[in-house]
Specification:
By secondary structure, the chain is an alpha+beta fold. It has seven helices and 20 strands. The strands form four sheets. Strands 3-2-1-4-5-6 form a six-stranded parallel β-sheet.
C-alpha cells in the first residue's frame, strides 16, 4: 500500500463508443484502487463508463490535481486529451484501443504489467512539442488552435487549387499552387504528412516540417525548418479553403487571411514502460519487418 507521499491521483480518459471497453476499464480501475491510488474519470468519460466509487473530474481540475492521466483509446483520443492538458504538464500514458497506435502505444494485453512498471518509477519519459496557430484577418485574430500533430491549410472538395504565399521568419519562401500545405510537428510526421510524402522526424528533433499536398510544381518539395521558426501562410486565391488543427477545422477563410504558426511554449510528456523504443514502434506500425513471400503474402 502506498504511503501518503507515494499515493497518486490518476485520471482515466476513455474513447467513446468503444465496443468491449468496460472490462479493460474495470480491470485498470481495480488495479489502481487496490494499489492505493485515487482514481477519477475525465468528465466526458464518466458519462458513458460506469465504475463504483470513481468520481468525475473536469479537465482543468485534472490538470491541477492529477499526477498521471491514462488514455484508453486510439491516437485521436490521445490528441484531444493532450491538447487540453498541454498547459498543465501532466504526464500521459496511452493504452491502445484504436487501430494504429503510434502514441497510444501500450497494447491492451500488456496494460497492467506496463502500468506496474510505470507507477514503480521505471517509466521512459519523452517530451513532445506542439504547434499553436492563429488566423489573422487584417489585424484581428478570428480563430486560434493548438496542434500535437499538424496544422493543415487545404482547399475544399471540388474546388480548384489554392494559391498560398508562405513566409518563414519574415523571409519570403514561395507562392505555392497546390491542394494545401501541412505544417507538422515531429509527432505528426507519421500522420497526414507521411501520406503526403513528407519525411519521418524523430520526436526529439527540434524541427517543423512543411509538406505540400499535391503541388502543381513538382519542384515544391517537403522541407524541415528550425522549430524556432514563425510561419505565415497567406491565402492568395482559391475557394472553400479551410485550416484545421489536428483535424479541428475552421472553414471560413477569405483571400488575404493569414495563418500564423509557431511552436507552442507548452510540451506534453508521454510515459512508456522500460525498454520502449521509437524505432520499435516504427518497425511495428509501418511493417518494416515484413517482406513479400513467394506466394504473395507478407512474412516477417
Amino acid at each position: 500500500m502506498p504511503t501518503p507521499d507515494s499515493q497518486k491521483t490518476i485520471a482515466l480518459a476513455v474513447r467513446h463508443n468503444t465496443a468491449g471497453i468496460d472490462d479493460p476499464v474495470t480491470r485498470v480501475v481495480r488495479y489502481l484502487q487496490d494499489a492505493g491510488h485515487r482514481v477519477v474519470f475525465e468528465s466526458e468519460t464518466a458519462t458513458h463508463v460506469q465504475a463504483d466509487g470513481v468520481p468525475a473530474m473536469a479537465i482543468a481540475d485534472i490538470g491541477q490535481q492529477a499526477d498521471l492521466v491514462i488514455v484508453m483509446g486510439g491516437d485521436g483520443t490521445m490528441l484531444g486529451i493532450a491538447r487540453q492538458l498541454a498547459p498543465y504538464a501532466v504526464p500521459l500514458v496511452g493504452i491502445n484501443q484504436g487501430r494504429l497506435g503510434f502514441i497510444t502505444d501500450i497494447p491492451i494485453e500488456r496494460m497492467l504489467p506496463a502500468l506496474e512498471e510505470i507507477l514503480s518509477g521505471k517509466a521512459n519519459a519523452e517530451k513532445r512539442t506542439l504547434l499553436e496557430g492563429r488566423v489573422m484577418r487584417e489585424d484581428a485574430v478570428i480563430a486560434s488552435g493548438l496542434a500535437v500533430n499538424d496544422v493543415v491549410v487545404s482547399r475544399g472538395t471540388g474546388a480548384g487549387m489554392a494559391e498560398l504565399k508562405v513566409t518563414v521568419d519574415d523571409c519570403f519562401m514561395y507562392n505555392q499552387r497546390s491542394d494545401g500545405l501541412i505544417v507538422t510537428t515531429p509527432t505528426g510526421s507519421t500522420a497526414y504528412a507521411l501520406s503526403a510524402g513528407g519525411p519521418l522526424l524523430h520526436p526529439t528533433l527540434p524541427g517543423i516540417g512543411l509538406v505540400p499536398i499535391a503541388p502543381h510544381a513538382l519542384s515544391n518539395r517537403p522541407i524541415v525548418i528550425p522549430e524556432t521558426s514563425v510561419i505565415v501562410i497567406e491565402i492568395m486565391s482559391g475557394r472553400d479553403i479551410s485550416v484545421n488543427f489536428d483535424m479541428q477545422t475552421f472553414a471560413s477563410l477569405q483571400h488575404g487571411d493569414r495563418i500564423v504558426i509557431q511552436r507552442s511554449p507548452n510540451t506534453i510528456t508521454f510515459l512508456h514502460p522500460p525498454g520502449w523504443s521509437y524505432y520499435d514502434t516504427l518497425r511495428e506500425k509501418l511493417h518494416w519487418n515484413e517482406y513479400p513471400s513467394i506466394e504473395g503474402k507478407l512474412t516477417k
